[in-house]
Batch of 3 targets.
Target 1
Amino acid sequence: MSRRPTSFNLDEVRYEPEELYPEAESEAQAALDSAVSVAIQPMRRGRVWLGVLFAAVAILILFAVGIGLDNLIRALFDRSNILGWIASVVTALAALALIVIIVREAAGLWRLRQVNHIHAHAVEVAAADDRDGAVAIMREIDALYRRRPDTARGRAYLAAHRGDIIDGRDLIGLAETNLLLPLDESARRMVLSSAKRVALVTAISPRAVIDLLFVGSEILRLIRRLAMLYGGRPGTIGFFRLTRETISHLALTGGIAAGDSLIQQIIGHGVAARLSARLGEGVINGLLTARVGIAAIEVCRPLPFINGSPPRIADVMAALRPLAKEKDE
């Protein structure tokens, strides 16, 4: 059957390749997207080779230490059997102590990772209001505080109400109220106590170096105490990691650039006009210590703040205000 001749406008004709070859077009677009994603991914080969370098150097150091100890023990045996056996026993004790330290550090890192996992999971569950996820979080936090006698009543209350028909966010709030709010009160007292000590010592110390050393040691001590309070119990490596996370959290939340707000707190309470220069520095150092403590609470806490609230700088300033008045008088 022949078609009749027709006329048409060339401007109205559109060529759409995706309509003619949809599969080929989608495959080409997927290949292009994957190529772009591969191109923009950061190269991590440098980190891999840096890790290989550190591992190789550590192995060589272990070999060198082992060969040195072997030569030392052999030389002591050649000199005297008693000295050789004493060196062997001391080496065995050193190896045992090293194994215990490694196990404790690994356990501390595992506890910190567990706390971080519970916190991150709780944030997701609270946002999605997932009841099954909240029940799993209640089991995890019960296992975290199982050896804490001061949490026995709260854990028993949560076990009794775990099967109730409660939304996921409310279940997390229930766990926070019965387990963490008493710990939050202790954490507030720790932060206030550290802020008062820093304010008092830096106000009367004669040297800036003493101020710096005392403030640094007090901040590190506060972070460790808060981690112990919330169940982290970090080792040395875990403590350094926790300190780094606290400083990172402080930077992300704008705590490092909080100088203007701290000055406003002081001026708002009418303290700046009555204080000497040294006492003003002490109050500022105390407030900065409290700010680090608040960031450490948010990092060490296994659950997000739902029913509770973190300490505020205004509360710390209210606690430092009587101290400032006494010193001014």
Target 2
Amino acid sequence: MKFGSGLAACSNSYDAGRRAAAAALQQAGDPAIVLPFTTDCHDHEAVLAGIQSVVSNTPLVGCCVGGIIMNDEVIMDGVGVCLLSGPEISAVTALAGGLSGDPWAAGERLGKDLIADGDTPGIVFLYPDGFSANISRTIQGVYDVLGPEFKYAGGGTGDNLKFATTVQFTERGVRSDSIAGALIRGIPFGTAVGHGWQPLGEPLLVSRAAGKRVLEIDGLPAFDAYRERIGPITPQQFAEHGMLHPLGFPDVAGHYLIRDPIAVNDDRSLEFVTEVPRNALGYLMQCDVAELITISGQVASQAAAQVRKPAFALVFDCISRYLLMKEKFPKEISAVRKAIGKRIPLFGVLTFGEIGSYVDVPMLHNKTMVITVGGEANGN
């Protein structure tokens, strides 16, 4: 098995796709699967055409993201491509639209397409439109078809914080309001998820919610309840405080599922990046940046420990972690690289929601890091 990656930052979208793919191809040889990512400044159909001029009709799955992580750098304007090659590897891709209409059905369609030729387990990479509502339902639809025998990783697609439109694509073409996915077999993968956020104060109850809008917390308008816990802030100050104090909802194992608030509405409800269920019991959360970085290293160690002889790492890191850490973000990348081995190739993206499993069931996370490490199976 070989891993190759390439990055191109030229303004011509076709050339950027072609150059990034050619650089990856030079390292890995004839690919079994192509994993490309672009930032929103590009013509995505031209990028896809440029990549396919190099790799022909190879299975391919990718999307638009907030930024590209390659080794020690974060690129906010470019095209990144990574390839996996080897006779033992097989891959199937699928693209299902209509997330905004029936998210569960879209997930089911994707899952069925991925196993149309057989249900042998592998790892499933998922890239849903990060601006669609009820992405969690889409992931549940996929899981309803595939179940716990598969591993899951991925993230919500997005742009450079314009919150306008985003795309998903396979070798068959480019779409929006869809979910792109790939099932890869033949490579052992370790996966892990974590974030480092801790609960602050007493629990709270989401007493009224609709999709991404939380109308009431503890029976009060959501913003008023938030102010009671944080202090006398104005709606104009909310973005800053919301970045530092998201909500967290515990599971039975004590893991916190983070939900990221982004705005105050005119009716004093709160808008979130991801849907929040009604009657959910949770907490206001807090963090120390040093702890976030430490946890990133631990997550990488957990993923790497699941394989023998790690060969590469793929990272899905929330764009809000990047914005929160600012100049300290390279320390997070360094912590991951130290954990997996500094000579191991690392490729990652800044996502709008992260997909990963603490145990078996994949969930949509916010302000979280999901890491996958490919290598040899333990015991071989």
Target 3
Amino acid sequence: MPRIPVCLALIALGTTLGAQDAGPKQAVDASAQFNKLQTEFRKASADWRRQQWEAARKNPRLPIRMVPTEIIHEFIPKFADAARQHAGTDAAIPFLTWLLTADRAPNNPHSKAALATLLSDHVTSAKLADAAASIPALGRTLGTRVVDDAIAKILAKNPHGLVKARIYYTRASVVLRAQKVSKEAKAAALADMRKCIDLAPESDFASRAKGVLYEQEKLQIGMPVPDIEGEDLDGVAFRLSDYKGKVIMLDFWGDW
């Protein structure tokens, strides 16, 4: 058996250890890199909006644009480059998620490319929740069919309950916020809310979903008012149902 020089063995061992250590360090570096880019983008956007307001104040006839398109396009290459640096790893997902949602112009290539990469490289990742939650609201940007296909692919291939719960919650919310909703669409949206609760019962989204279900099933026009229990100004207990058949004015207020 050939003898391996000690120096070469140590070099090989050092290389292996270095590769093992690169994972957590890379994740930390990627997180810091994303936060830095995000902070720079927010500052640039805030400065741009401030300039818009100042220009409008000097000339009221000027239209005020609230979407900093120029700033978005300035930062798209920066986020895309960062996503390429971390390609194939979960560290790329925040950058791809930003690219997915930053430009809301219909059929823009940046959102399309980011979605394609998320679906090809990260569809089974537990870190996909934020991106997945964004997809149902991108119908105008990517097209309804593209969005529906992406949702179906994630629901079929991602094994993580929280990721699916986020999709169900956002998809239902998009439907329920629409001005006109058919009975069938509303029923499907409420079913999505229940799936969200079943898949991630301890999550914030499950709590929100419960609130939406209660509102939709108990607090709609024409439904009986839920009974309220409390004390009046004299400390006497009462129930709203005690005044059934009488005209009641409810005054909800708070002191913060």
